[in-house]
Amino acid sequence: MSDIPAVAVVLTPVASASALAGLCAMQDVDVHVVPSRSGAVAVVELEPAPDAPPADDWDIGELLGASGEEVPAAADEVARTLSRLTKAGVVLITASLAQDAGFEQGLSGQLTARRYAGGERGEDVAVGLVLAGADDVVEDLVLGRVRVTDVPGHARSGDLPRWKAARMFAKGLRKPRP
Fold it and tell me: Phi, psi at residue 137, to the nearest 5°?
């Protein structure tokens, strides 16, 4: 799992992954886009955080989520941009995870979810409830169980030429014929 890059996930109300990829490409937003049953998802690969030296004292703020960690700038920018483009807004999910060693082994850390609407940061929301209502692929991406490029239907908006982005956006907005 350590070779899978950390990501932030932006849940959108856009039903079609191709429409979201085209929309992102036309707005010069370079993200990975994957389909899900609950709406297309934009995935931002994050730079790995430098290894922090181990703390001498345990801080209860780590348990309560008051560690002062901010949303990564790249993820914040994408969420703000996409929230301006959708009337319903978006939800940004980020994770601060580490692989434990020693007595207790496994993945540990903290997940956060925050609403964005009209380009503005909103309130934090219960990440458990958000993940419960989302497709399993969202949880797999956030926890690093799967690479974004391995998800069926994956597209990278930054790789799309403008003409193809416009075509994908228009095609994604059309309703399928019965």
Answer: -60, -30
